Amino acid sequence: MEVLPCSRVAHIERTKKPYNNDIDYYAKRNALRAAEVWMDEFKSHVYMAWNIPMNVRNSKASGYCLDQGAEDDDKAILYPCHGMSSQVGALVTITQL
Questions:
Q1: Percent of the chain with pLDDT over 90
Q2: How many alpha carbons fall within 13 Å on the CB side of residue 8?
Q3: What b/e string do you get for 7-29 counting C-beta neighbours within 10 Å, with b at 16 or more?
Q4: What is the pTM (predicted TM-score) of this model?
Q5: What are the pLDDT digits (tens) for 9-29?
Q6: Are residues 4 and 43 located together in one domain of the fold?
Q7: How many domains, in total, are found in the chain?
Q8: pLDDT confidence of residue 67
Q9: Same domain, residue pair 42 and 3
Q10: Can you name the residues that pair with 77 across neighbouring β-strands?
Q11: Coiled-coil intervals in this record (predicted)?
C-alpha cells in the first residue's frame, strides 16, 4: 500500500487541528484501517512491512499463545492467551522471534 498526501482538491481543513503535529501516526493508522477492511489476504504484508506485531498462535491449540514469561530472559512457552505484554513480540528474521 502506498500512502499519498491529500491533493487538497475541495478539501476543507480546520484552522486548529485537534491532534498533535505528528501526522504520520494518523496517516499510518488510517492506512492500517484500509488494509484491515479491504485487503484481507494482504494485510499481513502491511503489518510485516511496518514491523507491527501480529498474533502468533498455534493452529492446533487455538486458545494458546507464545508467552515470554515473567522475566526478560525466560524461555518462550505456550500459555493461555491473555493479551498482556509478555505475549507481545515481533518477528525480526525468518528464524528469530
A1: 0
A2: 2
A3: eeeeeeeeeeeeeeeeeeeeeee
A4: 0.34
A5: 555 666 766 665 666 777 777
A6: yes
A7: 2
A8: 77
A9: yes
A10: 67
A11: none
